[in-house]
Amino acid sequence: MASAGVTETTPIALRELTTLRTGAAPLRMLEASTRDELLAALQDVWSTGDDWFVLGGGSNLFVGDGPFEGTVIRVLTEGIEELPSPHEGRVRLRVQAGHNWDALVAYAVERGYAGIEAMSGIPGTVGAAPVQNVGAYGQEIQETLVEVELIDEHDDAPVVLPAAELGLGFRTSVLKHHYGEAQGRRAVILSVTLDLAVTGDAGRVVRGEQLRRALGLEDYEAVPLAWVRSRILETRAAKGMLLDADDPDTWSAGSFFQNAIVPEPVARSLPPECPRWPVEPDLDSVTVIPLDSYYGLAPREEKPVGMVKVSAAWLIENSGIRKGFRLPQSRAGVSTKHALALTNRGGATAAELSELARFIQSRVHSEFGLLLQPEPVLVGVDL
After folding, report:
1. Among this protein's residues, is 117 annotated catalytic?
2. Among the residues of the chain, which ranges form H helices?
3. 293 catalytic per annotation
4. Are strands 187-198 and 145-152 parallel, antiparallel or unpaired?
5. DSSP letter string, 304-335
6. Among residues 171, 276, 345, 363, which one is catalytic?
7. Spatial separation of the C-alpha atoms in residues 8 and 314, rounded to whole Å
8. What digits encode the pLDDT tens for the residues 341-380?
9. R_g of the chain, CA atoms, integer Å
10. How does pLDDT run across 108-158, given as a tens digit for each residue?
11. What is the pLDDT of residues 298-316, one digit of tens each?
């Protein structure tokens, strides 16, 4: 029985709530439409000691075929609050965790708030965005993220955590549960605060080579935010990356595999036509020398090995896996529009999708020596 202030609902099969369309009904399901309801639901679950996870848009989740023997908390909170920014020409938005991410982007673009427009069309909720450090076309949430309000498992009260303490990296944070690794911090985000530039209707120079190339822009060419959003949505639709109930190519978790981050020497060993982008080094790193070992000379610093991001889609296609590829008699397949998306072609089980994922991993590893890592959070699934 649920505690006071907690809404317990008849469990819904997770295949109906996730974009990959897999998963049975959990043992128990709670719904939270307000911040207070979410806090109450979490405290209720933690008091039982049962296994649990929170569910937003279900777009970055790959759930196994067996029923989840625990509680799923659906985060349905919504709301955007505008706050003053300490920086001139900027505004802050505090957004509830269950708010739809693309609805937030549309809100910002309509008001001339810049900084997240390249992430138009990304499915899911705002609360999941920092966990994944979502990004697209060279723009990432960490560029505008100020802080999150979260509550750690079994704590009594939430805390406000600056973005710098989230361990944000390429499609990761201390809050993300990576397959095969322990979660760095088991907590639930309640709200997210972003700091955006106020540009109005005026054109804005698009930063980032990757985004300019995707938009077909010359250097220093200024364009309105609405134009950028429109072009990004068109591009994502062409790749099957906009959810469409009538298009099996969109019945996916988006990019199933992460672009590989490898040292420069490894990147140089790949064919020159493989797309790659340098990963910016940490220019603010500081060398700390204990006083008891300092003799007047600083140690000579070794030049760090540069890291390079290489295209997982290119690696997949050039390992012999083409768009539309399916294993014999399988209802899972690679999208016909984008090699990075594994799709449920209708009634596919998690086992079928897992088999396809493992096959792709083995082909890429055989051809290029790299083991692609899954991007979605896996629940009850082995690869």
Report:
1. no
2. 35-48, 101-110, 128-132, 209-215, 225-238, 264-269, 312-317, 350-368
3. no
4. antiparallel
5. PPPEEEE-HHHHHHTTT--TT---TT-SEEE-
6. 171
7. 45
8. 999 999 999 999 999 999 999 999 999 999 999 999 999 9
9. 22
10. 999 999 999 999 999 999 999 999 999 988 889 999 999 999 999 999 999
11. 454 444 568 999 999 999 9
Q: Are 161 and 150 in contact (CB under 8 A)?
A: yes
Tokens in use for 32?
């939270």
Exposed (0-12), middle (13-18) or buried (19+): which is 347, by Cβ within 10 Å? exposed
Pairing of strands 61-63, 28-32: unpaired
284: pLDDT strictly greater than 90 = no
Buried residues in 308-326 as b, exposed as e (16+ CB within 10 A): bbbbbbbbbbbbebebebe
Q: Retrieve residue 87's tokens.
A: 């920086």
- In this structure, are residues 107 and 81 in contact, taking their beta carbons and an 8 Å threshold? no
Catalytic residue among 37, 117, 149, 375: 375
Cα–Cα distance for residue pair 266/184, rounded to 1 Å: 28
> Is 69 labeled as catalytic in the residue annotation?
no
User: Which of the residues 85, 255, 311, 354 is marked catalytic?
Assistant: 255
In whole angstroms, how far apart are CA 40 and each of 33, 64, 94, 228, 330?
11, 28, 21, 40, 42
